[in-house]
Design a protein that fits this description.
The mean pLDDT is 89. α1 (8-29) packs antiparallel against α2. The chain is elongated. The protein is mainly alpha-helical and 57 residues long. The chain has helices at residues 8-29, 34-55. Helices cover 77% and strands 0% of the residues. The protein has one domain. This is Aspartyl-phosphate phosphatase Spo0E family protein.
Length: 57
């Protein structure tokens, strides 16, 4: 994702893919597993981006 400018649609698609991965990893490895937390943090960045963009309107 870094170094590549994504459209809002691509970013939304990436959000849902990451969300599904985070849920799968959370179920398999636990909610406090580093991989689950990594996906959660990536999702937070996407959410923050959408909130920042939507607040500009």
């Amino acid at each position: 994702m870094e170094g590549h400018c994504l459209t809002d649609i691509e970013l939304e698609d990436e959000f849902f893919k990451l969300q599904a991965r985070m849920i799968d990893v959370g179920i398999l490895k636990g909610l406090t597993h580093p991989e689950t937390i990594k996906y959660s943090q990536e999702l937070d960045m996407i959410i923050n981006h959408f909130q920042k963009v939507s607040s500009q309107y």
